[in-house]
Amino acid sequence: MDRAGSAEDDLGMSLSHEDSLVHRDLMDGRVRLPEVGAVLPGSSASLPWFVVDAAGREVEPVSSYLRDRLLGDVSRLTCRSYGFDLLRWFRVLWALDVGWEQATEAEAAALVGWLRTARNPQRQRRRDDGYPAGSVNPKTGKPLLGAGYAPATIAHNLSVVYGFYAFHMHFGRGPVLNPVPENRARRQALAHRSPLEQKRRHRRGRLRPKVPARTPRAIPDQQWDELFARMGCTRDRALLCCYVSSGARASELLGVELSDVDWQHGRLWVVSKGTRARQPVPVSPEALAYLAAYFDEAGLPESGPIWRTRRGPGRPLTYWAARRIIQRAVDELGMNWTLHDLRHTAATRLARDPALTLVEVQTILRHAHVTTTALYTVAGLDDLVDKLAEHYSRPSQPAAWTQGYDPADVEAVFGAR
């Protein structure tokens, strides 16, 4: 009974001895989460994705919540992401044999503990001769993703579960209290705050992980030249040039059609990821030249996106195919740059151009807040190599006093030099 009592103290719940052991085993990673259920595409506009259980039956509480999210104008991909987070939550409930209406903070703690100890299957797909997960690439200085789930993933999963129960509790369904603890200190710190005021610090809520601030990393010019030289066809060179000169997001650029190319004004029209509005992005003359050469080689597409596959019938280039283009090149070079790093590179080049103001760069990148754009103005240690080398080679200068001071007084106060 002593072990059961300690488990009850840790979880803050009155659990039976058997239940507390199962929760503890799941938190410590000694129990595998059952790989049952799935997220499947829906056939209706109001529910593009839905979750099914082990028997293939639709989980109706999740479907009603996702429908509400879609009415709140979230994207289809956001609906899919929420579906996977809730599927993971329901797998925890199924493993603990707890109904979703009876879920407590103990189950939320089990979810967080399992995410902290489990290995992310997405991290297992790497080369045998590559660098281990969680290490730092010596050539790029960029950390590799860890073997487990990132703190941002845990925080996002908790936010989705909290919203799921807040939705059902609004209609009088589900448990009396939300299984995910509410962070009232954060709500008070962010409520009614002027944008001119400095952000007030607040404590993290219970079960919430510490999410480190991500610093955007741009590809150095020398490594960019090496990466660009590895592109094996005109299409790939045109694609990279358009990415690094426009700063467009990966999915935005891949959706560009022939009518979206404005040759006269040197820009492309993309559907923005956030607002889903059709907006222009600039491209360099070099990118347009490569794009014209790509059209001369592959021909003009009759319809659909301009970026097409090279083998078989011309199909639109997917995000995963475009990402694989970069992966093959960086694997050969021993680097770990990603497709999204091309946007970081474009943003860093624009932000450090003295001829462009920060507000102008914000307009080009289509950031909602200028504080996001300001992240790219921070100088990294790699950018200071030449200045540091000049600093270390400069001989130290002897201290000199202003001529108005009497040398005898200086010696009396500070001693002989």
Kindly describe this structure.
By secondary structure, the protein is mainly alpha-helical. The protein has helices spanning 2-11, 17-27, 60-71, 76-96, 105-117, 151-170, 184-190, 221-229, 234-246, 250-254, 285-298, 319-333, 341-351, 358-365, 370-374, 385-393, 407-414, and strands spanning 38-44, 47-52, 261-262, 267-271, 278-282. The protein folds into two domains: 2-187, no CATH class; 221-377, hpI Integrase, Chain A, CATH 1.10.443. Helices cover 46% and strands 6% of the residues. A three-stranded antiparallel sheet has the order 3-4-5, with no helix packed on it. It is globular, with a radius of gyration of 27 Å. The N and C termini lie far apart (74 Å). Residues 1-14 have low confidence and may be disordered.
What count of domains describes the coordinates?
2
Shape: globular
Q: How would you write the strand order of the largest sheet?
A: 3-4-5
Which spans have pLDDT < 50 for at least 5 consecutive residues? 1-14
Task: Count helical runs.
Answer: 17
- Mean pLDDT over the residues: 86
The beta-strand count equals 5
Distance between the termini: 74 Å
Portion of residues within helices: 40-55%
User: What structural class should be given to the helix and strand makeup?
Assistant: mainly alpha
Rounded Rg: 27 Å
Describe the biggest sheet?
3 strands, antiparallel
H/E element sequence: HHEEHHHHHHHHEEEHHHHHHH
Q: Report strand %.
A: 5-15%
Which tags fit this structure?
single chain; 2 domains; globular; 417 residues; mainly alpha; disordered N terminus; 46% helix; hpI Integrase, Chain A; 5 strands; 17 helices; two-stranded antiparallel ribbon; three-stranded antiparallel β-sheet
